[in-house]
Amino acid sequence: MSNTLRALSVLLAYPTEGLREAVADIGSVLVDEGLVSARERADLWPLLAELRNDDLYDLQERYVELFDRSRSLTLNLFEHVHGESRDRGQAMVDLAALYERGGLTMTANELPDYLPLLLEYASTRPIGEARQLLTDIAPIVAALRERLVARGSTYAGVFGALLVLSGSANAEPVELAEPRDIDADWAEDPVAFGPEAAPGCSSDRTMSRIRAARRDARSEETNHV
């Protein structure tokens, strides 16, 4: 299960040129390890095709729109059940301690409940422990999959595969906060450049490139550690 979990973790990461180059290897892992059935793989192929063929900045914009600017789809799992309450803080402390006991070192800019990080940790554990971790988060994963399906997003396939790996393909989705209400909290004001810029001027591509530069810089720092 370890290679499959790593592959799914990578698919949920911010799109980079490195991810594009790894698409063929990811597809091979999903086939060779055989833990994801042909049906689930069929739901994943459209995402792999997009990552391989679409313009990188378009991929990054879509990712930001889904997971960074939409709180209802944030990949920080505890946000969906604890919000900003103290319960979330304690849950993250407990999860960070679990990672530490398992030998996973987090970087300063990572939150323990970030789904790709949790999957990376699960990929290092014995199969029974890994499956239990996936089972524990299955209700949240099921709810996120429903929301992604409703948006017509190809990322839904990753969440469907995670449910199958957890043995909880029919998990009842946890009741999350209403998307419209919590998304409004995260809405960003339009950005205009220059004294004569029109109100509401779109800057999504510019913001995506800035975010990309920051993420790539953080990734570079991590690689040199």
* CATH-defined fold name: TorD-like
Structural class comes to mainly alpha
Q: What number of domains?
A: 1
So how many helices? 11
User: What share of residues is helical?
Assistant: 55-70%
In what range is the share of β-strand residues?
Answer: under 5%
User: pLDDT under 50 segments (min length 5)?
Assistant: 179-214, 216-225
CATH first level: which class?
Mainly Alpha
Q: In the CATH classification, which architecture applies? A: Orthogonal Bundle
Q: Which descriptor suits the 3D outline?
A: globular
The first-to-last residue Cα distance is 27 Å
Detail the topology: elements first, then pairings.
Layout: H1 2-11, H2 17-32, H3 38-53, H4 56-68, H5 78-82, H6 86-101, H7 115-122, H8 127-150, H9 156-166, H10 179-186, H11 204-224
Characterise the protein shown here.
By secondary structure, the protein is mainly alpha-helical. It has a single domain, classed as TorD-like. It contains 11 helices and no strands. Helix 1 runs antiparallel to helix 7 and helix 2 runs antiparallel to helix 3. The longest helix has 24 residues. This is Nitrate reductase molybdenum cofactor assembly chaperone. Keywords: Nitrate assimilation. It holds the Pfam family Nitrate_red_del.
